[in-house]
Amino acid sequence: MKIEIQSKKGLRTVLSINVDKKTIQNKMNERLAELQREVSLKGFRPGKVPQSVIKSQFGKSIYGEVIDKVLRETSTKAISEKKLKVAGQPKIDLKQFGEGKDLNYELLIDCLPKIELKPLNNFKANDYKIKIENQTIDEKLKEISKQNKRFEDKKDNEKAMMGDQVIFDYSATVDGNSFEGSEGKGVQIELGKDLFLKGFDKQLVETKKGEIKIVNATLPANHPKKELANKDTKFKCKIINVKKSVENKIDDKFATMMGAKDINDLRSLIEKQISSQYTQALNSITKKEILDQIEKTHVIDLPKNLIDQELELITRNLKPEDKEKHKSRNEKLAKSRIKLGLILNELGEKNNLKVSENEVRAEIQKQIKGMPGQEKMVIDYYQKNPSATQSLKGSLYEEKIIELIKSKIKLNSKQIKIKEAEKIIADFNHQNIDDNQSSKTKSSSKGLTKSKKISKK
């Protein structure tokens, strides 16, 4: 095999590769010998079909198979010998081929740029620590208490009021006829929430235990049975019980109902939850500050094929008119993502950062613990989606790189209260909307959309 650099311009290198016809013929002979042991043709004993017969019947496909294999092997060897760092899939341009001829082709390679990392010690960023005040925890406890109302029986002669819980059986008819699903037993509704059918709750106000009440309502437009959609319906309701809401006493007993050991444990869990929600958003703002500085201080050439691939990912769900309308912005975003990905990968490689399989498994276990009752779903998701596991590995790798950067820059630690955190997050969101950026916090409780993941193979 003969390898020559045909041309080198910017990040694109074109190699001219020639494989002599003798090598090709040897590969053909090897493949024919393999097939001779495998092929079974009428009129010949297994394994005794002459190579000439096999070649006459399958010659073209065998040659194509051999050439494909030779192209894969020789292109890989050429890239290795020339010590090229390939960006994306190289392209092959066949110049000469055919049985009895040398194989000659050009390999068009987009290479990764050489990256000179800038010192990190001059970079600055804010590292926010959220302080959760007792008042905030108290308010959250009250909210949880309201969401988990407790109801006690009213006296038999006491009438239902808005906010009470009414338990009833019903039978319904449309035009005097019953229908599938027209009966219900032990239905519980909290009057005022209007969750059963629109206007249903109001008609149960002032009912009492043991009473029969006729309620007129309209079935929803999206009823499973199309013939019943929007139909006026008569519900004959037998009131089984009426209950009034009782304010929860926020104590150890209430805490155990919520799955905590005691009230102090519940307060601690709430504090951690609130802190985690804000910290996720604030950490993403810190990360954005760091990445902006890294992007501005590094000047590198970017492989066009990687930009094109990223642009395709960004715009694949957009309409043609939207692609054209936001073309400039999306190109800028694609370049930014590729540039940061290359720089961060270089940082990771230079500092020998790796993500072990144990770390990936530990992260999956962490996710499982955070989703009680859905453990099997999480496990199945990762088992059935290898790309999801690889993406998770990329996220962990990126986190390691960001933590490395934080350890080397001037990090200004700030302890802030929730109101300050919300203002910082809101200002960040507003700025990102104005700048048409893709990464932004949606709310203090939901955090930020993550930047593009980096894969570390």
List the keywords.
457 residues, alpha+beta, Alpha-Beta Plaits, Trigger factor, domain 2, Chitinase A, domain 3, 5-stranded antiparallel sheet, 12 helices, 21% strand, disordered C terminus
Describe the SSE topology.
Blueprint: E1 2-9, E2 12-19, H1 21-38, H2 51-81, E3 91-96, E4 103-110, E5 124-131, H3 134-147, E6 150-153, E7 165-173, E8 183-190, E9 212-218, E10 232-246, H4 252-257, H5 263-297, H6 304-315, H7 320-325, H8 327-350, H9 357-369, H10 375-384, H11 386-408, E11 410-417, H12 418-434, E12 441-443, E13 447-448
Parallel strand pairs: 5-11
Antiparallel strand pairs: 1-2, 2-4, 3-4, 6-10, 7-8, 7-10, 9-10, 12-13
Helix pairs in contact: 1-2, 5-12, 6-8, 8-11, 9-10, 9-11, 10-11
Let me know the number of strands: 13
Helicity, in percent? 40-55%
Give the amount of beta strand, in percent: 15-25%
Largest sheet: 5 strands, antiparallel
Stated plainly, the CATH topology of the largest domain is called Trigger factor, domain 2
How would you describe the shape?
A: extended
Would you list the SSEs in sequence order as H and E? EEHHEEEHEEEEEHHHHHHHHEHEE
Radius of gyration: 34 Å
| Overall average pLDDT | 89
CATH class of the largest domain: Mainly Alpha
> Which class do the helix and strand fractions yield?
alpha+beta
- What would CATH call the architecture of the largest domain? Orthogonal Bundle
